[in-house]
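Sequence in, structure out.
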Amino acid sequence: MATPEKKLKVAIMGAKGYPYVYGGYDTMIKELGERLVAKGVQVRVYNHRALFKDRPRFVNGIECIYTPAIESKSLTQLSHTFISMLHACFSDVDVIFVVNSGNGPFGLIAKIFGKPTAINVDGLEWLRPKWKGLGAKYFFWASKMATQFYDQVINDSDEMRRVYLELFQKDSEVIAYGANPRESVDAGPIKHWDLESRGYYLIVGRLVPDNNADLIIEGFLKSASKKKLVVVGDVPFADEWANRLKRIQDPRLLFTGYVTDPNELAALYSHCYVYFHGHEFGGTNPAMLKALGYGCAILALDTPFNQEMLQNGKHGWYFEKKAESVKEIVEKAESEPETMCDLRQNARLGLTQKYNWDYVAERYLEVFRQLANL
């Protein structure tokens, strides 16, 4: 009798968990994990125990392990991955998939145990303003360790692959994040904030310096625009930089805080006049993918990553890192409503195959099978 084909077993760690959808990594684990299960893969996700009041062992076919962590701003993530890595190495999983370059050193544990590993290293963490001094040094060192201790490094953009080749002499697989495009989103939810369709500009992202909300707000308020600027997002801790922004008084400025209802967020994207993208140090950005998927006209900070995502200006305009440049691009966008309309109509064409979640999952599955020799 033929022996049944061995099922691939993959452990995933480094984010908050499943089905906790909060940031880009959490979204990726949800989209990837569910698709892998549908393809017959046994998927285990390591969840931050403190974030889950209910702790079922299986959710939608995904095995959930609730590991503890040292709960502090700088140690939560690292300690959680360390404990999860030990647990996975003592288990029967075939491949360990880790997200976040900060977890680079823990690949050594898997190497000692002989477990195949892959890591998605994400953006240029060491350049982010929040990691000054020792934090920046740690992230640079950890990213370098990721290239030495993990069997396969994965980057989400061609530009990030180039950076890793240049800095660490390590090649990587490029697998982007996916998008979930939606058309015909009802405008009803935006009335919650007294907004009108096409009557506002939109920023979505954490209120941290490297997303440049301060620059966009300053430039916008200098412009002659009569529209509003809606800022969606916050920080999950007390922060003077973010508080200073939220104290700015201007009738055109609206801070919504976090918007967790997916229909409200979809409506805010779909009905904005323009989406502003000021993210500076990343590869494929999930907020930008949402903007393309919801059919937004996009004004983006001029970086190599944003150039790559918007196909060098085919799907958006660029501004420089100066308030005056923001002011000028706002006034230009208002003087060319037909061009903004064209950008909205063609936005979803920017979601080429590499941003399709089914394609993304297939690429990851190829990598995992190769690592497991299956």
